[in-house]
Specification:
The complex is a heterodimer of chains A (336) and B (554).
Chain A lengths: L1 H28 L4 H6 L5 H10 L6 H13 L13 H36 L4 H15 L2 H15 L22 H7 L3 H38 L2 H8 L4 H38 L5 H10 L3 H29 L1 H6 L2
Helix pairs in contact in A: 1-13, 5-6, 5-9, 5-11, 6-9, 7-9, 7-11, 8-9, 9-11, 10-11, 11-12, 11-13, 12-13
Chain B lengths: L1 H24 L9 E6 L14 H10 L4 E3 L6 E3 L2 E6 L5 E6 L13 H12 L12 H6 L17 E6 L4 E6 L6 H5 L9 H6 L5 E3 L5 E3 L3 H4 L7 E7 L3 E6 L12 E6 L3 H10 L4 E5 L4 H6 L3 E5 L4 E7 L9 H10 L2 H8 L4 E3 L22 H10 L6 E9 L9 H13 L3 E9 H11 L5 E7 L5 H9 L11 H12 L3 H19 L2 E7 L2 E5 L2 E2 L15 E2 L2
Parallel strand pairs in B: 1-12, 1-13, 17-18, 17-19
Antiparallel strand pairs in B: 2-3, 4-5, 5-7, 6-7, 8-9, 10-11, 11-12, 13-21, 14-21, 15-19, 15-20, 16-20, 22-23
Helix pairs in contact in B: 10-12, 11-13, 15-16, 16-17
The chains are: A mainly alpha (336), B alpha+beta (554).
Chain lengths: 336, 554
């Protein structure tokens, strides 16, 4: 198991180097540069030249990349051109919001997705199964921003039940020692603030969780159907185990393997979906920040932000790989 | 297994319950009566007026700081603010300002002549990255010279020479040359007065040039301790979330009616609109044209107009034949259905432009030559110029962009192309992404004979519009006309306000008559959305509105 883990971690290094090159080149392939976005129609040839020189954009790409790597190695992700603040500072302030949102959205997807898929498989071909299929198809195909706007229109504008923007009511006075607003409310015993933060999470989490929910329920359904017909399940039933035990010890545990793969992939989906969701809900996390920096051609933020998100996705997927080992001894043993 | 499932179902039910309970407890209106919640599109960059050029920083800083001379609310008329009166020398180079007495900055530092000079000298002494137009854009563009500047930014090329305190309440500013727009320029925020003590204590100019070429402030002045003399004081700022300012109870003038204002950054247009509908916001700026009807239909909301301060125009490049012929340019002017475009694509926010500057600025002429849509006249003019119809013309428009003066360039282009095709032209459509291809081509004169572009003013002076466009020879227009260059340069140096206005009126008549370098077609009024209960907000063409006069009813 240790060797398996170490090998997985070593694989990280080439992945990260590749990623940094990819992100670097991709951003420079975007049309436009910070100079033009800063000045708009005020941009004269001289002012553009001055700013390009200031930002070092006239140097050859490999020189720019080398400079980027040098600062990266020092743990410096650069400085935002539009806000003039260090990228690491902004990540520190904003990432908790995104974690909070994706966690809740992920939980929502799991808690509804797995039971939905499981029951659909158990009642294979019935009304529940068919309607859940249709629903999950809708869930997969509906764009997040559209769902977000519809949810807000119903629950915030029409019914007035839930807030439509931000992480907390601006009139609530609250301290934020951790920047996880729900947690902050709990640790500072400010229950009003915690409750308000929860309310602000509901709609964005549903919008963000809808696609993963649909995917998870479909995969769960397929996996359970698959496993149910395996020989060992039939054997288990034949030897007279109660159906409950068969389901939990044999069907579910084996079905969890493909499901856990999907869950790992969902993290990428959730984080990229967070860009849209946060923008629609004016939720001040990594997503709104990356979205704005695309418009401003804020290279350091794009580089730093995307690399950071990419690292998170890679790390989570490695953790998922490792969890296979726990779930399935066959993989663990293959690593020997 | 069942147990696990049961737990899952229970948790799911619990979260539904949470939602339901939230329903009961959500409070839609729960905002205090003396607090205004307002949204812009982003956070300010930094709360130091000398170091910003973005609208969101302007909005907040106009509440915290004041300039020597101000503008009458909602107009471009110059009125006293921190200076109660002023006079200029006969040669227009020396300006003497009598300062308002008993005024203090928010940190307690007295406002006086020494403070005025400290501000002017601070800008003049900027070094390194502080001189870049990405940092001190306005000083860079207007005063154009720094004590330690090099090349084009050398002190001798600049406008400012020195500032002297004659006693505590008189500041004398020496310029290197007479400069007509000087007073007008002093009304804009980047030349606001900030506390020299606070700037020094909190390291306003301390910073470093990062590897990315960005000036990164290492002090806390612009993020935690901004200090001006305005009717509101800085309170707190959580970037991405909210920025709070509170009433300055020691303000020298009429005190603010609100106790505090909270600014929220909301980039998404639909999100701003919905938050106004839910009551989470009291108002927001930058209402999209398509949302105006929605706001107007809602009996609890209202739309406010910001007076037009921009111009959209069709450039005619005279370097391209046969557009060097005035008759051909006139044919273009008569062949553009400007009224149709403004009516169809500006959602009631536009007026047809007849000059290259908005009517609110002194120097606007009422009697310029006008060109109403007239295809027959276009054709006659083209024939008179000896051309065979149809005359082929390359017409460029920008993609991937929406500007306040041009919400959807493609719509404008298609309508104009259709009307030109009816007027003896044959339009060849060309397009490029706004940033960087289109702007670059437009400025270098390689975007066809005709192209769509426009301008939003920085400050209320004719030179900021027609001076910027026509005072020097520029490849975009492709003409070399000493008469207009001379006229606009004279106007630039004229410091008598009436004489200046007369010169600019003369220039506008010449531009729209003899020169016809292009065809202005629209000025637009940006819109703000508010709750109906918010009164006292007076939109300013230059966005310099004060929140001090705002009141919440009921």
């Amino acid at each position: 198991m240790l060797r398996f883990t170490v090998r997985r971690l070593f694989l990280l290094v080439p992945i990260l180097i590749g990623l940094s090159i990819l992100v670097f080149l991709w951003i420079r392939a975007l049309p436009g540069s910070p100079a033009e976005s800063l000045l708009g129609e005020r941009a004269t040839a001289e002012s553009i030249a001055q700013i390009r020189e200031q930002y070092g954009l006239d140097d050859p790409l490999y020189v720019q990349y080398w400079r980027y790597v040098q600062t990266l190695v020092e743990g410096d992700l650069g400085t935002s051109i539009s806000s003039r603040r260090p990228v690491t500072t902004e990540i520190k302030e904003r990432f908790p919001a995104t974690i909070e949102l994706t966690l809740v959205a992920g939980l929502f997807a799991l808690l509804f997705g797995i039971p939905l898929g499981f029951f659909a498989a158990k009642r294979y071909g019935g009304i529940f199964d068919n309607s859940s299929l249709v629903l999950s198809l809708i869930g997969v195909s509906i764009p997040i921003f559209f769902l977000g706007i519809i949810l807000k229109w119903i629950f915030a504008v029409r019914l007035g039940w839930l807030p439509s923007i931000g992480r907390q009511d601006v009139l609530i006075e609250a301290d934020h020692p951790t920047n996880f607003y729900v947690l902050d409310g709990v640790v500072t015993r400010n229950w009003e603030a915690a409750w308000d933060a929860v309310k602000h999470l509901i709609l964005p989490a549903i919008a963000l969780g809808s696609i993963p929910l649909a995917l998870i329920s479909r995969i769960t359904r397929a996996a359970v159907l698959d496993v149910q017909n395996e020989d060992y399940v039939r054997t288990a039933r034949a030897k007279g185990l109660p159906p409950r035990t068969v389901d939990s010890r044999h069907v579910f545990r084996n079905a969890m393997l493909p499901i856990s793969t999907v869950i790992g992939l969902q993290v990428g989906l959730l984080l990229s979906g967070a860009i849209l969701t946060e923008t629609v809900f004016a939720f001040p996390g990594i997503g709104t920040w990356i979205q704005a920096s695309i418009e401003n051609r804020d290279y350091p933020v794009l580089q730093g932000g995307i690399l950071f998100v990419a690292v998170i996705v890679v790390v989570v997927n490695i953790l998922v790989d490792l969890s296979y080992g726990l779930l399935n001894p066959r993989i663990r043993l293959a690593g020997r | 297994m069942r147990k696990l499932l049961r737990t899952g179902v229970a948790l799911a039910a619990l979260s539904l319950l949470v939602a339901a309970v939230a329903a009961g407890s959500a409070d839609r209106s729960g905002q205090a009566n003396d607090t205004l919640v307002f949204a812009g599109a982003a956070d300010p960059v930094v709360l130091d007026f000398a170091l910003i050029s973005d609208g969101e920083s302007f909005r907040v800083l106009y509440q915290l700081t004041e300039t020597l001379v101000g503008l009458k609310p909602g107009t471009t008329k110059i009125v006293p603010q921190l200076a109660t009166s002023w006079k200029k020398s006969a040669n227009g180079k020396t300006w003497t300002f009598n300062l308002r007495r008993n005024v203090r900055f928010h940190d307690g530092t007295p406002f006086n002549a020494a403070a005025v000079c400290a501000n002017f000298d601070r800008w003049y002494n900027f070094r390194g990255a502080l001189q870049s137009s990405s940092t001190s854009y306005y000083y860079n563009v207007v005063f154009a010279g720094f004590r330690y500047g090099k090349g084009p930014l050398a002190a001798k090329n600049g406008l400012y020479r020195s500032c002297q305190a004659k006693g505590p309440n008189v500041a004398v500013i020496q310029l290197r040359r007479a400069f007509g727009p000087f007073l007008g320029i002093l009304t804009i925020g980047p030349f606001a007065m900030q506390s020299p003590t606070a700037m020094k204590t909190y390291g306003a100019d301390k910073g470093r040039l990062t590897a990315d070429g960005v000036f990164q402030s290492l002090g806390t002045y612009g993020t935690e301790h901004p200090a001006g003399t305005g009717p509101f004081k800085f309170s707190s700022w959580k970037i991405g979330d909210k920025l709070e300012i509170v009433r300055n109870d020691d303000y020298w003038g009429k005190k603010a009616l609100l106790q505090r204002v909270i600014f929220r950054p909301i980039a998404d247009n639909a999100a701003r609109l919905q938050a106004l509908q839910t009551g989470e916001l009291d108002g927001y700026d930058l209402v999209e044209p398509q949302d105006i009807a929605t706001i107007k239909r809602n009996k609890n909301l209202k739309v406010l107009d910001r007076p037009a301060f921009n111009v959209a125009y069709v450039t005619i490049n005279q370097a391209v034949e046969p557009f060097d012929d005035l008759r051909v340019r006139q044919a273009v002017a008569y062949g553009l259905d400007r009224a149709g475009v403004v009516k169809s694509f500006y959602a009631g926010r536009g007026v047809v432009a007849h000059e290259f500057m908005p009517s609110s600025i002194p120097g606007y002429a009422t009697n310029v030559k006008k060109y109403a849509y007239n295809p027959a006249r276009s054709k006659a003019l083209l024939r008179a110029a000896g051309l065979t119809l149809p005359v082929e013309v390359e017409f460029w428009w920008p993609s991937d962009v929406s500007r306040p003066y041009m919400p959807n360039p493609k719509n404008n282009f298609q309508a104009f192309a259709a009307s030109l095709n009816k007027s003896g032209f044959k339009v060849v459509a060309k397009s490029a992404p706004w940033n960087p291809t289109y702007l670059g081509r437009q400025q270098s004169g390689t975007a066809g004979a005709l192209n769509l572009i426009g301008w939003t003013g920085d400050y209320a002076d004719a030179d900021n519009f027609i001076g910027t466009f026509f005072r020097t020879k520029q490849p975009a227009w492709g003409f070399d006309d000493p008469k207009i260059f001379d006229l606009l340069n004279r106007a630039l140096q004229e410091t008598d306000l009436d004489a200046r206005a007369a010169l600019y009126q003369q220039a506008n008549r010449y531009i729209m008559g003899t020169l016809l370098p292009g065809v202005p077609y629209a000025h637009t009024k940006p819109a703000l959305g508010f709750k109906r209960t918010i009164v006292g907000y007076v939109p300013s063409p230059t966005t310099s509105e004060s929140f001090a006069s705002i009141r919440k009813l009921g």
